[in-house]
Write a structure and sequence with these properties.
alpha/beta, 7-stranded mixed β-sheet, 4-stranded mixed β-sheet, globular
């Protein structure tokens, strides 16, 4: 290997966020580099250019940078030129962008680095690194996505190799965008592109989904893992035919014309990649340079010492001549084993992404928090069932990793379940002074199935209420728990509700007990009786989470409580503040109901282990949770009101809109950035095929924004959720808006009313004209 690239800010971690305001973070990053020197990483790889992502401070300004080390010396510090500031990203809060025209300056290295490299200074800035047979330039994450990415300029300047150290998080359907950008970039101007992305979690809402890529002239040569339990470091490599770049480029006439003019008008500084002995660094293998064609373009000298050019035809007419023989002797061995393009990239279906991304995030949170497992209130509805299925997917991934011999995953599982680990057994054996007994590992726990893992680390609760919870939801909850393998409890919370209502009545003895709406109660009474049930469920969940391991005789530790509120209900505010939506983490809080239904349909299918070409997706099928079919067929319900002959509570009736409508509102509001008026006009165009009147559309839009603004305050207390899509209403950083609104939207609604009446009259006139014709 001649060149190694790592992820963005890989030394410190991309997700340090406001820790980038602390100079400790920068000092610790340099200390890590010094430690790598001490471990011999750079000494043992002197013929490898090593590209590392880390933060640096230059002239009292902080920069998101790449530090490149060659032959024990820092050859370039390349700061990020374009920062990411949309969605979850806030880079300009912590870093400054390096202006492309600023050029190269000298960076004063810390003393701990100077002692190890012998350098006082290192170049910092945007530059092209020129080797003997290849030139390299750097992009960082966002710079791939901007309208005028640096790689366009690099390609026109003749740069053969562009690398990108990235900190790109997972979102549903996002990988295809990355693939399109990278392949189209190298297809337009030719060249090789090395994309190295972080994988794993930084302790926040994001999961960095890896998927390193190496692309040559628009073709994908290598693709790394996208989701993983067992490692946060994957090596993706390819042997690149550099001569193919020249052949590709010289056949693109327009590129040559632009390159000829650009490099003269707007040159990018070039730095030679020098080894310690002063020679230029070669990107090609020592025994078989990859650039066979380019090797014939170098200057050579004849015996007289005069310079000759190798394209003199007379020199090649007779290979038996002295110059011909000398040329043939100088030719390196021909390398024929280059990495061939992949037949097709590995792109997961959205439902497969849901099964993998949140599952890896859950495992990462569990192993790093060192808690005992998860607890989930499992109602038998779609959302809690999807959450249970995700924990089941996590257990399946853990089991498969153990079967593949991933000892670190097995050791993490033993540590989580408070069982003896191999490391503890080895330590105990070594403490027996004077004995040399062979290690007996037969006593160490190895799970036999994903369900055995689930039974150890996953508790599910059915928290029913008298006269409100149905036999159907109770059975669906029980069936799914059995398939997943969780330790399942069926509890009645109504005695706790009655106890709290007794306290209320003692406060207002002259007022009778509150009643549900179906029994003649007011709106306020009905809401209060529903909310107290919801909040009691949260309190009981935390009680069981803290004591279940103790009660089951599992030793120390508590459980993480999982929420199962989906993104649409959060947007509409269809949840009770501090109910079961209030938990430790939420794996589905960034996923819409529509995508969750796709996932449930997929998870109910059985996986085809043969991976036949007719099976859609990468995994070959779902999780085999057949009980989810009944969940999909049932109408969503909170089951917080009494079931009578004439009344059964349903979510869509309570919300005043369907989940399909709510999903559309959410995408228009966040992804398409529509306010009330622009959403109205957009829906008039989209829903015209349904013959829906503008007045009805106006009422729907106004009702959505009224309910959204009334309930916006609830989003300030949302449980931290896995970020899965760009439609997330998560208030903490992704969807920054006020939480106190004028819910009448006086100005906007007046415009909508006027426009709806005008459009209604226009449609009536058009219909009348058609009748006359």
């Amino acid at each position: 290997v001649k060149y190694r690239a790592g992820g963005e800010l890989e030394v410190s971690g991309y997700g340090c966020e406001d820790h980038f305001f602390e100079t400790d973070t920068f000092e610790h990053s340099w200390q890590v580099i010094a430690r790598l020197f001490d471990l011999g990483v750079f000494e043992n790889n002197r013929n490898m250019l090593i590209d590392i992502g880390m933060p640096v401070i230059h002239q009292s300004a902080s920069y998101n940078s790449r530090v490149l080390v060659l032959d024990g010396k820092i050859v370039l510090i390349r700061p990020k030129v374009w920062l990411a500031d949309d969605g979850n990203y806030r880079e300009s809060r912590w870093f400054r962008a390096w202006p492309p025209s600023r050029g190269i300056e000298q960076y004063l290295l810390p003393e701990i680095i100077e002692k190890r490299t012998g350098q006082k200074f290192a170049p910092i800035g945007n530059a092209i690194l020129q080797g003997l047979d290849c030139s390299l330039a750097i992009e960082t994450c966002e710079e791939l996505f901007v309208p005028q990415p640096p790689h366009q300029q690099y390609g026109l300047h003749g740069v053969e190799l562009v690398s990108n150290g990235s900190g790109s998080h997972h979102s549903l359907r996002k990988l295809k965008q990355r693939l399109d950008l990278i392949t189209s970039a190298t297809r337009r101007t030719g060249g090789a592109y090395v994309y190295a992305n972080l994988i794993g979690c930084d302790g926040g809402r994001l999961y960095y989904d890896g998927c390193n890529m190496i692309v040559l002239n628009g073709e994908l040569l290598a693709q790394g893992e996208q989701f993983s339990l067992e490692s946060e470091c994957f090596i993706t490599y390819a042997d690149v035919d550099l001569d193919a770049i020249q052949r590709y480029r010289i056949n693109i006439v327009s590129r040559g014309v632009q390159a000829a003019s650009l490099s003269m008008v707007n040159p990018i500084p070039k730095l030679p990649l020098l080894m310690r002995d002063g020679s230029l660094f070669s990107f090609c293998k020592q025994d078989a340079p990859a650039k066979i064609g380019r090797s014939l373009s170098h200057k050579i000298s004849d015996s007289s010492g005069h310079t000759k050019w190798d394209h003199n035809e007379e020199d090649y007419e007779h290979v038996d001549g002295p110059l011909g023989r000398s040329l043939l002797e100088k030719l390196p061995p021909i390398q024929t084993e280059f990495t061939r393009p992949l037949q097709s990239p590995r792109v997961y279906l959205p439902q497969e992404e849901i099964a993998l991304g949140p599952a890896c995030w859950l495992w990462d949170y569990l192993r790093r928090s060192s808690l005992r497992g998860f607890l989930l209130p499992l109602s038998g509805g779609a959302d809690s069932s999807a959450t249970a299925a995700l924990v089941g997917s996590m257990c399946l991934l853990v089991f498969e990793a153990i079967q593949m011999g991933k000892l670190n995953v097995l050791e993490d599982l033993r540590r989580i379940t408070r069982k003896t680990t191999l490391a503890e057994l080895q330590a105990a054996n070594s403490e027996q002074a004077g004995t040399r007994n062979e290690l007996d590992i037969s006593s160490l726990w190895v799970p036999s199935s994903p369900q055995e893992i689930a039974n150890e680390i996953f508790v599910t609760l059915y928290l029913g209420s008298e006269n409100m919870s149905s036999k159907e939801t109770r059975q669906r909850s029980k069936d799914l728990a059995a398939e997943v393998g969780s330790y399942h409890l069926d509890l009645n919370i109504w005695p706790a509700v009655e106890a709290i209502l007794t306290i209320f009545q003692s406060a207002f003895p002259n007022k009778g007990p509150p009643k549900f709406k179906v029994y003649g109660g007011t709106y306020e009474e009905n809401q209060a009786l529903q909310n107290i049930q919801a909040r009691i469920r949260m309190v009981i969940s935390y009680l069981i989470a803290q004591l279940a391991p103790w009660a089951r005789g599992q030793g120390s530790g508590t459980l993480l409580v999982l929420s199962s509120a989906n993104v649409d209900e959060a947007l509409r505010g269809y949840l009770t503040k501090y109910d079961c939506s209030a938990a430790d983490i939420n794996p589905i809080g960034g996923i819409s109901k529509a995508d969750l239904k796709l996932f449930l349909q997929w998870a109910a299918t059985t996986r085809d282990k043969s991976r036949s070409s007719t099976t859609p997706g990468v995994l070959g099928g779902g999780l085999g949770l057949k009980s989810l079919k009944a969940v999909l067929e049932a109408a969503p319900t909170a089951e917080l009101e009494p079931i009578t002959v004439t009344h059964v509570q349903t979510d869509e009736a309570d919300m005043g809109m369907t989940y399909d409508e709510l999903s559309i509102y959410g995408r228009l509001r966040k992804v398409k950035h529509c306010g009330p008026v622009s959403m109205f006009y957009q829906l008039v165009r989209e829903w015209s095929v349904y013959k829906m009147s503008p007045l009805l559309i106006a009422e729907k839009v106004k009702f959505f924004f009224k309910m959204y603004s009334i309930n916006r305050h609830k989003l300030t207390t949302l449980t931290p959720s896995y970020h899965a899509e760009s439609y997330s209403p998560e208030d903490n950083r992704f969807d920054l808006r006020q939480f106190l609104y004028n819910t009448k939207w006086t100005w906007a609604f007046a415009i909508i009313n006027k426009a709806a009446r005008r459009l209604e009259k226009q449609q009536e006139a058009e219909a009348t004209a058609k009748k006359v014709d």
